[in-house]
Structures are given as structure tokens and as C-alpha cells.
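Our preliminary data section would be incomplete without showing what the modeling component actually yields. Below, a chain of 326 amino acids is followed by its predicted structure, encoded as C-alpha cells that our downstream tools consume directly.
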Amino acid sequence: MGPKGKNIIKYSLTTVLAAALVWLAFRKLDWSDFLDGLRRTRWAFVVLFAAASVLALVFRTLRWKLLLNPVDPKAGRLQIWDANNVSNLANIALPGSGEFIRCGYLSSKRAPYQKVLGTIVSERFCDVLAIALLFIAALAFNLERFGSFFNEQIWLPLSGRLGSALWYILAAGLAFTSLMVWAIFHFSDRSAFCGKLAGALRGLWQGFASFTLMDRKLLFITYTVIIWIMYVLMSYAIILALPELSGLGFIDALFISAVGNIASVIPVPGGIGAYHYLVALSLSSLYAASWETGILFATLSHELHAAIIIILGIISYSRLTLRRHK
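Predicted structure:
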């Protein structure tokens, strides 16, 4: 089977998974309660959500610029901003495709594709660490409440039969990848094909290690902290927008944001379905909120953020296209 056929199967499976999660999240929804909650939404706080969302994207651009400096110091902020926006737009339709697209926009003779991709891997690695720290911080603030939810709704399912199978698949995948990398470097002197692959992997590693070559590491960490504060602020803004959640505070927003980010790990277009189900589950389980309120929270957060990404993505794509024509 060719690459095109494999991609069709992969994206079909992710679409089916997204549809199943949407059905699971919305199947018991009382639409009259949902619409009533929407009518009582405080829209001024939704504007705050939008501002925090855009600021998070701005600081992501500034952070990636720092990572790219050792690879390509001439990459401009506006160019990086546009590449990021087009990448986010592509990820809504095809999960994971955006990372390769923004590499294509920024790669050049000065900055080979593999090195640019390596900076993205480094960036994503930092985000995974940030999500883990977000969870740890939330658990530290309220271990009794958040700990029980994490154990019952996340850890136990992952440690069950299906979870065990996934862990075995992950371990087998890591072992196979390690073996392949060893074989590529071992035979790089004897095989032209392995030699090219070894060169690509070296470029990828150089891009990944760009963090160690940065002059302003503290500024990179500061940008990362600000990005994740913006994400928590986005959750807190929607909490303030919904009267039904008036008893919740910033620490609750911290945990809800951490739970919602788990959806980014699930390979569905734009996190749709997965985000709605996990957020609604956390709100109904932890705070006894109605399922309708949980779905309203998730819908406002997810769809508004998606609308911002689509608008900015279209603007940036148009600008990049015009620049290339010129």
C-alpha cells in the first residue's frame, strides 16, 4: 500500500474516533438546558478568553523564534507567526500534519528541513513537560479532590486491560524505533540509503538540541510559563462566563486546563469529541455540575479557540501565498 492509501486509512480512523467521542459526549445532552445556559453566558468574559487565546499564540511565536535562532537567525517573527497559524489550521483537519507544513514554510539552505523539524520536537517536548507540571501543581493544591478523579477516571482506565495493551504497543514501538535507529547508524557507511537517513537524523537532533545553544534560556522558560498561564486563564475566563460555575476558582481552572490538554494526545481532528468528553466528565464528577454545563464549557472553549485559529490561519495563509508570488 502506498503512502496515499495509508494516509486515507489513518485519517479515516481518526475521523471515526472523533465521531464516536462526539456521540459519547452529546448523546445524553438536554438541548433545552444547554441553550438556556448559552443564553445566560456572560460574554464579556468570553472576550477575555479570546484575548488570552491570541496572546498564547503570540508567545508561542516568540518562543519558537528563540529555538530557531541557532538554526536560522534570519527567520522573521511575522514569518514564524504565519507559519504557526497555518500549522494550527492544518492540524484542525489533519492531526499532526501542521508540524510538517510549518517546517516547509521555514526550511531553507540556511535551515534544512530536518533541523527546523528538530526545533518543533524540542518545543513539543517542553509542552509535554509543562502539561505534567500542570497536573502536579493541580494535585499539590487539592490532592484529595483532584487525586481521586485522576486515579478513577484516568489512571485506572489506563492501567486496565485496554490500557495495558496500549502500554505494550507503546513499549514495542519504542523498542522497534530504537532498533531501527541503531541499524541506520550502524550501516550508514555501507549503505547510501542508510547514510542519507543518518544525515537526516543528525539534522533532526541538531534542531532538537537547539535549546542548549540558545543565548536566552531564561527568556524561553519565561515564555513557556506565560503560554501556560494564558491557557489556564482561558479556562478561568469560561468559568467566570458561566453562572453555574460561579463557585470555582483559579486552581479549579488549573486542573480543568490540565485535563483538557490530555485531549491533545488523542489523535482526533482538532481534539474534537475528546476535549468535550474529558472536560464535561471532570466538571460533572468533581463539582457536581450538570452534563449540559460541562458540554457548554467545553463547546465555548473549543469552538471559540478553533474559530480564532481558523481566522488567523486563513489570514496567514493568504499573506504567505502573496509573499511567495512576489
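The CA atoms of residues 186 and 194 lie 9 Å apart. Residues 291-325 form the longest helix (35 residues). Preliminary results of this kind motivate Aim 1 of the renewal.
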